UniProtKB/TrEMBL annotation:
Region (Disordered) location: 52-73
Record field: compositional bias (Acidic residues): 54-73
Name listed for the protein in its UniProt record: Lysine biosynthesis protein LysW
Source organism (scientific name): Candidatus Iainarchaeum sp
Amino acid sequence: MKKTCSDCKTRFEVKLEDIEEGDHVNCPECNLEYTLIYDSNGKEKLVETKVLEMEDDEDEDDNEYSDYDSYND
């Protein structure tokens, strides 16, 4: 799989047979970290790890507010 870094625009090759879902891959030029995920169609995607973590944090924040609401009922 070929990936173009969203930060430095370097194009690099990732051998999918060497990694699994959830593994991290770094851009060889700027060291930006990507995580391998599978989308809803089962296709491999490399997503910036910090973006993936931000989405997880948003999900956790939603749960915190719903817990708070349940205590006030």
